[in-house]
Amino acid sequence: MKKNPSSQKKAPLSLDEIGRKASEADAEKWDLRLYVAGQTPRSVAAFANLKRLCEEHLSGRYTIEVIDLVKHPQLAAGDQILAIPTLVRKLPQPIRKIVGDLRDTDRALVGLQLRPGKG
Amino acid sequence: MAKSALDQNHSLDRTLPKAPTGIQGLDEITQGGLPRGRPTLVCGSAGCGKTLLSMEFLVRGATEYGEPGVFMAFEESTEELAQNVRSLGFDLNRLVRQKKLFLDFVRVERSEIEETGEYDLEGLFIRLNAAIESIGAKRVVLDIIEALFSGLQNEGILRAELRRLFRWLKDKGVTAIITGERGDGTLTRRGLEEYVSDCVILLDHRVTDQVSTRRMRIVKYRGTTHGTNEYPFLIDEDGFSVLPITSLGLQHEVSTERISTGVPRLDAMLGGKGFYRGSTVLISGTAGTGKTSLAAQFVDAACSRGERCLYFAFEESPGQLIRNMRSIGLNLGKCVKNGLLHIHSSRATFYGLEMHLAQIHKLVQEVKPDIVVIDPIGSLVGAGTMRDANAMMIRLIDFLKLKGITAMLTNLASSGNALERTDVAISSIVDSWILLRDIELDGERNRAMYVLKSRGMTHSNQLREFLLTDRGIDLLDVYVGPEGVLTGSSRVSLEARERSAALASQQEAERKERERQRKREALEAKIVAMRKDFEVEDAESALIATQELARKQKVDADRRDMAISRQADEDNGFARPRRRQNSR
């Protein structure tokens, strides 16, 4: 699972490679889970940011499941959730976690591996 | 005694309720346990027992005090945890099934996590809350919560959230332990002590002279008095135990009962009755002076009285000890077989002093002996430093005295040192001290024994020769004479010499007597001869006197006859004046 990020980190990807990755990603189904704790402004913001981001980059091939830990506290352990809000990318593999309200779109995209990392 | 002090403290500290940990010794030094409903920080370097301490706190809470607990691990998985503490006899899985314990493993993987924007640790709170609620937990452990710092980048958020977490734990009213790794110059790496300030316990694992000792110190305990010293503690198959030195005092009951040493003549040296029951006896001596044999004889005598004995042999295995003692006619094997004698052998350097002390404690509790022998105590110095060994011996002696157990300690006096000195400097706290020494004379070495001190009884000041025979130990009077103290064959030869000298002088006396007799006889013979001579002389002189008288009478008679015959001669001028003269 470390292969992908490490190869990305080693050298900035060429435009060709990005294109190839993007087309690979195109073929995949994105399964996202957003963990929140109640209807706090932060979780509302996180959901809005996520929604916007997905519409822009993954239009039509994503599902978002919002899990409210206040209602289902037992689900926190499964994905090792500590911070709230946390976005978990279940698919495509490997699992990625992004904590925070996703305000920083660039970092969110890096975290979701929709954009190459900081190099 | 310790218990009553504890009760007293309970009543004094009404303002600060405490949650007993159930850990041996820790409740004594904290005077009741950890602050109830507050978090306690347990810090220390890696491998010093933080996790075990906190786990035992939960397990004891769950099993002994009816307080279920939540263990939240940030470094070990629950399986690993359960496995690790199984060696201490804790069956976590069973407790989990009984809903007395909840284990949760919080894994924080930096590589999986990207941070974007604001967040908080509500997820952790929810998890912890759910765990607490699910079993009604009263106790919580957060093991190495600092691991969060390596998983999440935003230290500002983390610090704020940790502060909130500890506040929240207090509000929840759970008694919590938070563990943290020791930092460089600080108690914890991330300065957790800043947030958890009610009670801080520092664990330490030090290696001195290649022997490791674990120590514990209560750095701070707000609102209550507590022991401030460093206390050694140990982790063995029964879990954690802290050994507070000061919890033992000098208030043990004393017995006036006397018990035999197993050597009748030694009993005689000790006021005729032997040692006091419950006293501490030290036998010291150089190598090969028979310390172990004397101890074995004591044990043998005790076993034949039906008393239980516990023998700690740090230099011999049980088999070896039994075999060797058979050579002086002691059948310890029989005592072992009928369950009266327990021999526990272990190398002194095998583990640290605290471990030894705990071992001894545990076996004493198990076996409930009347007599404990530790052979030899000096080797324990090898398992720690001198200071530690001394402290340990004092604790041990106090412990045995408290239990009313007669302790016999042997000490190997090293040849360079004075005999009246023990390696661990405990001579002042023992009650009776028997010194065995060897006397080297005329190319041979012999054993001698004397009672250096024996509190509370009259004891002999005599040196005795100490013989190991095939029927046990025998004490003989040593020869004390003009040539000094003699033992062994020189004693025997001197005795022989003395005997021959005595014979010679007797013969001399007889000879003199005969001489005297002879002289007397001679004298008497002489006296007889002289008397005979005298008698002869006497007879002779008597004869002469008679003859003279006869002659005189004859002369007178003659003269008279003549005068008669010559009457005319009466005018004789010659005769007359004589006559006149005579008539006047």
| Helix and strand pattern of chain A | HHEHEEEH
Largest sheet of chain A: 4 strands, mixed
How much of the sequence lies in strands of chain A comes to 15-25%
In helices, the fraction of residues of chain A equals 25-40%
Give the distance, in angstroms, between the N- and C-terminal Cα atoms of chain A: 18 Å
Can you tell me the CATH architecture of chain A? Answer: 3-Layer(aba) Sandwich
What's the helix count of chain A?
4
Query: What's the mean pLDDT score of chain B?
Result: 81
Question: What best-fitting shape of chain B do the alpha-carbon axes yield?
Answer: rod-shaped
Architecture overview:
The complex is a heterodimer of chains A (119) and B (584). Chain A has 119 residues and is an alpha+beta fold. Chain A has a single domain (26-111), classed as 3-Layer(aba) Sandwich (Glutaredoxin). Chain A contains four helices and four strands. In chain A, strands 2-1-3-4 form a four-stranded mixed β-sheet, with helices on one face. Mean pLDDT of chain A is 74; it is low at 1-9. With 584 residues, chain B is of the alpha/beta class. In chain B, helix 13 packs parallel to helix 14. Chain B contains 16 helices and 25 strands. Residues 1-13 and 575-584 of chain B have low confidence and may be disordered. In chain B, the strands form five sheets. A nine-stranded mixed β-sheet of chain B has the order 5-4-7-8-3-9-10-11-12, sandwiched between helices. Chain B has a nine-stranded mixed β-sheet with strand order 17-16-18-19-15-20-21-22-23, with helices on both faces. In chain B, strands 1-2 form a two-stranded antiparallel ribbon. Chain B is rod-shaped. Chain B folds into three domains: 2-247, 3-Layer(aba) Sandwich (Rossmann fold), CATH 3.40.50; 258-477, P-loop containing nucleotide triphosphate hydrolases (Rossmann fold), CATH 3.40.50.300; 491-567. The chains are: A alpha+beta (119), B alpha/beta (584).
